[in-house]
User: What shape does this take?
Amino acid sequence: MAVSQLVGAKIHRREDPRLITGHGHYIDDFTRQGTAYAAFVRSPVAHARVKSIDVTDASKAPGVVGVYTARDFKGQLAGTHPAAPAFVAEKKYVPERFPIAEKEVTYQGRLRRAARCDGPREGACKGRPEGP
Assistant: This one.
């Protein structure tokens, strides 16, 4: 078949009927013994200093195995995480970029806290995690 006949041609996908009728299988449909789930709290602001992170409510929620902040990863991370260097003119240096913000949030959506739960709909993993 010539390439000119393929461009714009209708392609019948075999998986479509199964997916659009609700008979598809997705990764969330499978449960394995010992599976843990994670929820992440990201920064709602583009630039801020982190004064403190209170994890008591999230830790006490049912089904929560642990809540982690940057302090929990001290000594576990061997350097910054790979990113294109971004010079901060007023600070005169290239900032270190660890996976979780500790003292300063440098962009909106920056990871601030993570929770590990027994199930996807338990504790801090239920829906959208609470907290700034």
Summary: DSSP finds three helices and five strands in the chain. The first strand starts at residue 37 and ends at 42. The radius of gyration is 22 Å.
